[in-house]
Each structure stands twice: as structure tokens, then as C-alpha cells.
Design brief:
single chain, 168 residues, mainly alpha, 8 helices, 73% helix, 0% strand
Length: 168
């Protein structure tokens, strides 16, 4: 499930658009929530060197999976934008299944790569690890391809806005 999350996300996006009942107010509120989620993702991506180390800086000081947390907040924004109970159920199921599976896979991979260091990090002992603490870098966020999530949010907003305009 975790590996299929992107293709399933596109299929779910089409269904979400069909289920959505957006208004200009729901679009504004949902876009604000989604922007907060994306800000979390950009902040995390600007600290992350994927597969090279256990990252302990930025939002990784407080949560083990800030990219997924940001994605969940974006999903909440999509729910608010779409203003539909059926859409809320669909998005919640996707988040629970896809992100939950991705977290399990990622934790297994990181545990295999970093062993006890990763277990200590998950246990909240990041400060004792001596892990790399770095400053945020927008170039690093770009290298981590965070622009794709930004594009996805903008596309969802544009499609929901088009639907709101056609329906109203």
C-alpha cells in the first residue's frame, strides 16, 4: 500500500474532485490549512538528507515524521476545501492506510540502515545521539523535490476552484 500511495493518490484525487462541493469560503479556509501543512513539509525537507543519517534538526527535533505530519495537515486542508463528508472519509482512509504503511516501511528501512541510533531517536533521545544539526536550506528542500507537493496543492486548489465556479 505504501508503495502505491502516489498512483492511488492520483486516482483518489479524481474521485475527490467528483465528490467535492467547494465554495469560495471552503477554498480559502482549506488552502490556508494546506499551506500550513506544506510549510511543515518544506521546513522538514530543508533539514533532511534522505538515507544518509538520522536527522535531528528542524522539526525532526519534535516529531519523527514531519513530512507525513505535513501531508496529513494538507489532507485536512483538502477535506476543508472539498466540503464533503464522503470526501472526508475517502481522504481519511487514504491518509491512514497510505501514510501509515509508508511510516512502517520507512521505519523498517531506517532501523536496518542505522540500527540503535534510529531506535534511540524514536525513543526521544535525539539530543544524546550527536546527530547532525543543521540550518534550514531551501536548496535542500528543492533537492528533496518538495516542489512536487507544492504543485499538487496548487493543482488541487485550481481544480476545486474551477468546480466551485462551474457549480455556483
Amino acid at each position: 500500500m505504501a508503495r502505491a500511495r502516489v498512483p492511488l493518490g492520483f486516482l483518489g484525487g479524481a474521485v475527490a474532485l467528483w465528490l467535492a462541493q467547494p465554495t469560495w469560503g471552503s477554498l480559502a479556509a482549506g488552502a490556508t490549512v494546506a499551506a500550513l501543512g506544506e510549510a511543515m513539509r518544506v521546513w522538514a525537507a530543508g533539514h533532511l538528507e534522505k538515507g544518509r543519517e538520522v536527522t535531528c534538526s528542524g522539526p525532526y527535533r519534535w516529531t519523527a515524521h514531519p513530512l507525513y505530519l505535513g501531508s496529513a495537515i494538507i489532507a485536512l486542508g483538502i477535506i476543508v476545501m472539498g466540503r464533503s463528508r464522503a470526501l472526508a472519509v475517502l481522504v481519511a482512509a487514504y491518509v491512514l492506510l497510505a501514510i501509515g504503511g509508508a511510516i512502517r516501511n520507512e521505519q523498517a528501512e531506517l532501523r536496518a540502515a542505522f540500527g540503535r541510533e534510529y531506535d534511540d531517536y524514536l525513543a526521544g533521545n535525539a539530543a544524546s545521539l550527536g546527530g547532525v544539526v543543521r540550518r534550514f536550506s531551501l536548496a535542500r528542500a528543492r533537492r528533496n523535490r518538495e516542489y512536487r507537493a507544492v504543485a499538487g496543492i496548487l493543482l488541487a486548489l485550481a481544480l476545486f476552484a474551477l468546480k466551485a465556479r462551474l457549480v455556483l
